[in-house]
Each structure stands twice: as C-alpha cells, then as structure tokens.
Design brief:
Blueprint: H1 2-7, H2 13-33, H3 38-41, H4 44-55, H5 61-81, H6 90-101, H7 110-120, H8 129-146, H9 155-162, E1 170-172, E2 208-210, H10 213-219, H11 224-231, H12 237-243, H13 250-267
Antiparallel strand pairs: 1-2
Helix pairs in contact: 2-4, 4-5, 4-6, 5-7, 6-7
C-alpha cells in the first residue's frame, strides 16, 4: 500500500499503475499457459526475467521469441540439467530483468539481451569442485597423450592433487578477488573494451588450474608473471600450457575454455 501511495502522485497515476500491473499479469499468464514451460516457470527469478523479456520495448516479435527460447534453454540447463535449487543466480536474473524493463542503455537491443542471457547460462565449474577436478585431470591425461609420451604423468604430482580436498587444489588464474588498482586491473574486458564483472568469469573452466594446496595458497592474487613462477614448481602439462601465455585476460579465458570444451565433447561422447 505504501509503495502504491508513493507512486500515485497525480490523478492519472492510479490508472497508469493499474494498467501496468494488468499488463504484467497478462504476460505472466502467457508464460503459465504454456504447459511445456512448467519446468522453468517454477523458478521465481526465471518468471521475473521471462515477463521482462515479454515487456522489452526495443525488440520485434521474432526477436522476442528467440530471446524467450534462449531464456528457456539457459534456465533449464541451470535448474534442470545441473540440478541447482531456486537460490541459484537470483541476482543475475533479477538484475537483467530490471535493466530490461527500465530500458537500460546497455540492455535494449536483441543482441544485447541475448548476450546477457548467454552470460547467465555460463557454467561456473568452481561451484562443483569434485567435478571440476575430475574434468581437469582427464584433460591433463589428454595433454599427456597428445604429447606422445605414452599417456604417462608423474605419480607424485597426481598424488599431490588427489590426496587433498578438491576445492584446495583448484587455482583461479585470474583471482576471485583481485586487489583494487592492482596488477589485474583492466584485464577483465571484452574485445570491444567494455569491462566485465569478475565474478561472471573467474569460475569458468578456462580460468581454472590444478595445483597442490600449498602452491594455491602461495599464488593467491599475485600478478600473472609471479603466478607463473609458482605454477612451474608443479609439473603438469596444463601448467605448461598456461605458462606459455604472456598475459592472462578475458581473451585467454575464452580461448582456453573453448579448447577444453572442444576436447570434452569428444571425451564424453558415446563409445
């Protein structure tokens, strides 16, 4: 009631607020009427974003349908295939919905909204440390095979990884919490120069590395050149791969993730 009173400042305000609430209700009804979407409309923040997409003003109907399709795919991956509960990515969904309905300058066009939806759908592998370690170790074995040395690897190095908790052995190359005005400042940018939120990218598989806990603690938020010297104390091929880079930015994360993803498609395809 207090919110409604604050919004109704003129004699025409009640009708405007009522029309807007009615419009939202009808759009929500449209979502609910599609029984095939029940698996994704059960999630509150997903419903909110779905209604926001239906309300977007700067897309045509063909583009709107494609955005809804992407919204459904992302939401089902997160809450269906990955089995996350309704507490997951609340902020990401709500912020994007808010930017769409308020016509934020960076979230108006079809391409802008589609890109943001894809960002929400990126898998943060660090959320599942055991699965992450399993994938990265399989990737290490692949690199050994690719090197043509009979798929061998140092048993001592393997022990240093697998005898510890998975979360302690996973290093974020680009730090989770880099120091302000520190050596990582300005490195999390797209190719067009637009800065990206660190938290959206540091958990991606392209930014993760297996090293023993002691070295993980030593590396922390050091600059990349110093991190490489620490990494070299551990003899894994994925470390050699990372250390061959002169710098570590969003571009390197994208490239490494694409490489690991391409390998993973073959590794876990049917026999």
């Amino acid at each position: 009631m207090e919110l409604l009173r604050r919004e109704c400042k003129t004699c025409s305000s009640p009708a405007q607020v009522t029309d807007r609430l009615l419009g939202v209700s009808r759009k929500l009804g449209d979502l609910y009427s599609n029984v095939q979407l029940n698996a994704v409309t059960d999630i509150l923040q997903a419903r909110l974003l779905g209604v926001a997409i239906l309300s977007a003003q700067h897309v045509d109907e063909g583009e709107r349908q494609k955005l809804l399709d992407q919204w459904e795919r992302v939401t089902f991956r997160i809450f269906g295939l990955f089995g996350k509960d309704a507490r997951t990515k609340v902020g990401d969904y709500v912020k994007l919905a808010y930017r769409i309905v308020t016509n934020h300058i960076e979230t108006r066009t079809y391409n802008q909204i589609l890109k943001e939806l894809r960002e929400i759908g990126r898998k943060d592998f660090y959320e599942s440390p055991d699965a992450c370690r399993y994938l990265l170790w399989n990737y290490e074995e692949h690199l050994a095979t690719e090197a043509g040395v009979g798929a061998t690897y140092d048993a001592q190095e393997r022990s240093a990884i697998w005898k510890q908790r998975a979360s302690d052995t996973i290093e974020h190359i680009f730090p989770q919490t880099p120091a302000e005005s520190g050596p990582w400042t300005g490195k999390m940018k797209r190719s067009d120069g637009v800065a990206q939120p660190t938290q959206l990218h540091v958990g991606r598989v392209g930014n993760l590395l297996l090293i023993p806990a002691a070295l993980n603690s030593e590396a922390k938020i050091r600059k990349f050149s110093e991190k490489k010297e620490i990494y070299k104390k551990h003899n894994l091929r994925m470390i050699h791969e990372v250390c061959s880079e002169a710098d570590w930015t969003l571009s390197q994360i994208d490239q490494r993730e694409a490489k690991v993803a391409e390998w993973a498609k073959g590794r876990w395809s049917d026999i």
